[in-house]
Amino acid sequence: MELFLNFLASGLVIGSIYGLIAIGFAVIFKTTGVLNFAQGEVMMLVAYVSWSLATELDLPLVLLIPLVVVAAAAIGALLERIFIRPMLGEPVFAIIMVTIGLAVTLRSVIVLIWGADAAAFDVPLKGGLIEIGPVVLFTEQLFAIVLFLVVALAIFLFFRFTRIGTAMRATAQDETTALLMGVDVKRISMLAWAIAAVVSGLAGIAFAMMISRAPDMWFLGLRAFPATILGGLDAPLGSGLGGLLIGVIGDLSEGYIGQGLKEISGFVVIIVILMVRPYGLFGQRELERV
């Protein structure tokens, strides 16, 4: 039982990272109908910028996080304005191809600016151990779980109770009607990219604190993508829960069955789930009248 609980806790830790990135995927898709295949690279860019801020300014975590939120929002908004805004009205496939090109570009830019070597993300939070019954976690691992819970709650409250969140949901339902009601769709698109950059960027910080910041961090976006599919592309909170499920299933399968299953178990799960629920566990079924 003790081994199972530790595998479960480890899965929740990495699942929290996947869940945050998956929320970023879902926020953009829910609002604009576009899959941002550069989400992992945006996460990595925010993590690198955060590392530079922490290193150069020697900021404690409590001051670093608000500064990172502002920087990440600016990065997301800038990327949307430069790369996505000119593509409005173009086929969705063309926009997706732009995000793939953006992903490759960001990987190269990061290596060009920061180099190809990994480096520790040292903050005062790093290094402590916390025992919860038979489960032992590092402080930064517990921070990742708490961060996921706080962000998931904030996203729920934002979409449910704020005017901007309501406008974003209205745009997702029917862009034309939202335009007729006076909603600034361009502003909503920029805001979606900003929110997604903040959420996934916080995931990058949490991961870098646990492991390191490295130019292969973008691969977390690929690992988190099954969580978005599992939870539902149009369900940010569902995608977050999908991340937890993918993380737990990955660690349990590798722990009890064999090494190497962590990377593929998520894709196996979505194949099975999509055969039963093509719109994901929490996604909405689209009905078309003929």
TrEMBL record:
One of its GO terms (cellular component) is plasma membrane. Keywords: Amino-acid transport, Cell membrane, Membrane, Transmembrane, Transmembrane helix, Transport. The chain crosses the membrane at residues 6-27, 59-79, 91-115, 135-159, 190-212, 224-252, 264-282. It is a multi-pass membrane protein. It comes from the Bacteria. The keyword Membrane applies. CDD domains: TM_PBP1_LivH_like. One of its GO terms (biological process) is amino acid transport. It is found in: Cell membrane. Its main location: membrane. One of its GO terms (molecular function) is transmembrane transporter activity. Belongs to the binding-protein-dependent transport system permease family. LivHM subfamily. This is Amino acid/amide ABC transporter membrane protein 1, HAAT family. It comes from Tistlia consotensis USBA 355.
